[in-house]
Specification:
Elements lengths: L6 H7 L45 H25 L11 H31 L6 H14 L4 H5 L1
Helix pairs in contact: 1-3, 2-3
Length: 155
């Protein structure tokens, strides 16, 4: 199965959604200082990752969905461990166990979830192109040739 060229490839490898070559984040490790800093643009094709102000606020919706999925996974894991006889877990009797385990797992996975939500969010709006370098070069040339906006003239 060819994965490159799909949004899943970009999400799993944290690469540019346009060319799938350049890295999206400056830091490769989710648990090191600066883990949240995204590059301003792709080092390979030049895709601008700095959309308009507030663009990545939408990633909070993705983060919420990932967090809900994580809590469901914790519940299912505890239920399976109970079924296997490894622990005793009843949701209404051992709710504290669910909260403690879920909180620990959530705290441990917060940095990767943050990064994952941002890369998923940008992948919703940017499509892969094999000719990404030429495409972005042509976009920049069009922007340079475009007349100044009305806002700039009125200032």
């Amino acid at each position: 199965m060819k994965l490159k060229g799909t949004k899943l490839y970009s999400v799993l490898t944290f690469t540019c959604p346009r060319c799938h070559e350049g890295k999206f984040f400056k830091q490769g490790n989710s648990y090191r200082k600066g883990f949240a800093e995204a590059r301003p643009s792709c080092t390979h094709c030049g895709e601008d990752f700095r959309r308009e102000p507030g663009y990545y606020f939408g990633a909070a919706y993705v983060s919420y969905a990932l967090t809900v999925a994580l809590w469901v996974a914790v519940y299912v894991a505890l239920w399976v461990f109970d079924a296997l006889g490894w622990i005793s877990f009843r949701f209404f009797e051992n709710g504290w166990l669910f909260l403690i385990v879920g909180s620990i797992v959530l705290l441990a996975l917060m940095p990767p979830l943050y990064r994952l939500s941002r890369i998923i969010w940008i992948n919703l709006f940017v499509d892969y192109r094999e000719d990404a370098v030429e495409f972005n070069r042509a976009l920049r040339l069009e922007e340079e040739k475009a007349p100044p906006s009305e806002l700039a003239e009125s200032a």
